[in-house]
Amino acid sequence: MVVRLARRAGIFVLTAWVASIIVFTLLAILPGDVARTMLGVQATPEAVAALRTELGLDRPAPLRYLDWLGGLLRGDLGVSYVTHQPIAPEVFEHLQVSLILVVSAMIIAICGAFPVGIFAAWRQGRPDGTVISALSQIAVAVPGFLAGLLLVIVFAVTLHWLPASGWAAPIEGAGPFLSHLILPALALGLIQGAILSRYVRSAVLDIVAEDFMRTARSKGLTPFRALLRHGLRNALIPVVTVSGIELAALFVGAIVIETVFVVPGIGSLLVSAVQNRDLIEIQGVVMVIVIMVLLINLLVDLLYAVIDPRLRSAR
């Protein structure tokens, strides 16, 4: 187990380093001049050159990368080209909002996917099971922003139950916080839950056909109790893999949902940085998202050993 943990940690560090090179290189080769964009087309060449020197853009790219990487290791993402404020505090403040939204959406997805997937597998070939499978397949095809708009029309515009946009921090009270969280979390979680339910259904169907399940039933257990006692643990292995991918996808999907619901998360910060062509802030935000995705993958790998004893090292 220790060797597996060390190996996965090494892969995590190596992947993050390669990702930092890719992110920096892609943004460095973008056409256009940041200094010229900031000063406008009427700026003189002398003013543009002075601003490039002030921002450090006249230095060689390898040196700029090493400085940025060193700051990244210290938790310093640099200073914004537009606001001239440190980027790290702003990124982590917005990241907290995104984490609340993503975790809430993942809870909704899991709570909906497991009962729906198990029911669809258990009732396979019957009318109710077929209807559930068809509805989940239709939900998979619905874009997240469309689900958000439909939820706004129903619950905010028509019923006036929930606010259509905005955000309230938890310190402002449970009522305002939950009322602003429900719609974006539902819009983000329901679609991912539909996708996850398809994998749960497939995993349960595969497990039910295994020999050990027939053995459990032959010992007197009902099919459903055999599934609960012996089948679900084995079905969790592929589902955990998909759940990790889904959780990583939620961070990407949150960019759209935060824009639709005007949620001040890291996705909204990224969109604002792109609009302002604040490349240093874009680098920091993208790198934080990459690290979060890599951490999710690392956690999924470690969960394998917890769920499947065969993956644990022998004493």
Write up this protein.
- The mean pLDDT is 83.
- The chain has helices at residues 2-28, 34-39, 45-55, 61-73, 87-122, 127-140, 144-158, 174-208, 211-218, 223-261, 266-275, 279-307.
- It has twelve helices and no strands.
- By secondary structure, the chain is an all-alpha fold.
- Helix 5 (87-122) crosses helix 8 and helix 10 packs parallel to helix 11.
- The protein is globular, with a radius of gyration of 24 Å.
- The relative contact order is 0.14.
- It has two domains: 2-73; 87-311, MetI-like fold (Orthogonal Bundle).
- CATH fold-level topology of the largest domain: MetI-like fold
CATH superfamily of the largest domain: MetI-like
Mean pLDDT: 83
Total count of domains: 2
Outline type: globular
Q: Tell me which CATH architecture of the largest domain applies here.
A: Orthogonal Bundle
CATH class of the largest domain: Mainly Alpha
**Uncertain runs with pLDDT below 50, 5 residues or more?**
none
Specify the oligomeric state.
single chain
What is the H/E string? HHHHHHHHHHHH
Total DSSP E strands: 0
Structural class: mainly alpha
Question: Over the alpha carbons, how many angstroms does the gyration radius reach?
Answer: 24 Å
Domain ABC transmembrane type-1: 95-304
GO cellular component, one term: plasma membrane
Transmembrane segments: 12-30, 99-122, 134-157, 177-196, 235-262, 282-307
Family: Belongs to the binding-protein-dependent transport system permease family.
